[in-house]
Amino acid sequence: MADILCRIRFLQPEWIWRLRTEPFRLLGGDTILTESPGHMLVWSASHEVISQIVGRRNDFVKPTAMYRILDIYGRNVVSTEGALWRQHRKIASAPFSEQNNELVWAESVEQTRGMLRHWLGDADRAREGVADDVGEDTMRLTLNIISRAGFGRSLAWPGRGGRDEVDAGHQMGYKEALETLLHNILWIMLLPKVVLSEYHWDRLQEKEARMCVLIIGRVCSVS
After folding, report:
1. For 182-194, what is the mean pLDDT?
2. Whose CA is closest to 10, among 47, 39, 18?
3. Rounded to an integer, what distance in angstroms lies between the CA atom of residue 132 and that of residue 82?
C-alpha cells in the first residue's frame, strides 16, 4: 500500500521539492528511476552517485534542448555542452575572480547603505519606520550590484544623482534598458516575436540591443 501511495505522489508537480527524501525511504533505496511516456529520469539521494554524475561531464551530457528557452542572446554557458561549452565557460568565468569578488562585496555594502539612506532619507517615512516596497527595493539592490560587478556601470538610488544617460545610437539609457528587460524577461522567453510585436516589441528590441552591446563589450574585454 505504501508503494502505491508513493507512486501516486510522483504525479505531483515538482514532487521532489515537496517530498524530499521521503520516497527514497519508502522504496528502500537512495537511487530510483521514474518512467513516463516521454522519458525516464534517475533521481538520487546518494552523494557518491551525484559526484559521479557531476564529475563525469562527458559521460553524463546535459540535455541542452531543455535550456533553449534561455537562448535570448544566442547560445550560452547554460545551454551548451562539449567544446562550445568550454568556450563559453572561459568567457563567463572571467568575472568570478577574487578581485571581482572583492568588488562585489564592496558594492554590496555601498548599495545596501544607499538603500537604507533611500528608506530613511524621507523624514515622514523614517518617522513611521515604513518601507514602501521592500520587494522592489531589494530587486533594485541586486540589479545595482550586478550592474557594477558585471558591466562596470554604477547605478545610484533615486534622489542620489547619477543620471541615466543615453549613449549615441540608442533610444534609452542603460538603467532603463536593464530594468525593463528584467521586468519583461518571462514574456520574452515564452512568447514568439510575432506575438510580442503587438505589445511594443520594438521597445523591447531596443532594450535587447542595448544589453547586447554591453554583453559583447564585456566578452571582448575578457577574451
Report:
1. 75
2. 18
3. 47
Q: Is 144 exposed, middle or buried (0-12, 13-18, 19+ CB in 10 A)?
A: buried
Burial status of residue 18 (CB atoms within 10 A of its CB: 0-12, 13-18, 19 or more): exposed
pLDDT tens for 118-136 read 887 755 555 555 677 788 8
pLDDT digits (tens, 9 = 90+) for 89-118: 888 887 778 888 899 999 999 999 988 888
- Distance between CA atoms of residues 192 and 190, nearest Å: 7
- DSSP designation for 44: E
For residue 216, what is its C-alpha cell? 559583447
Please name which of 1, 49, 8 lies closest in space to residue 29, comparing C-alpha atoms.
49
CB 148 within 8 A of CB 154: yes
Domain range list for the chain: 1-60, 63-93, 101-222
User: Could you tell me which residues come within 8 angstroms of residue 186 by beta carbon, excluding any fewer than 6 positions away?
Assistant: none
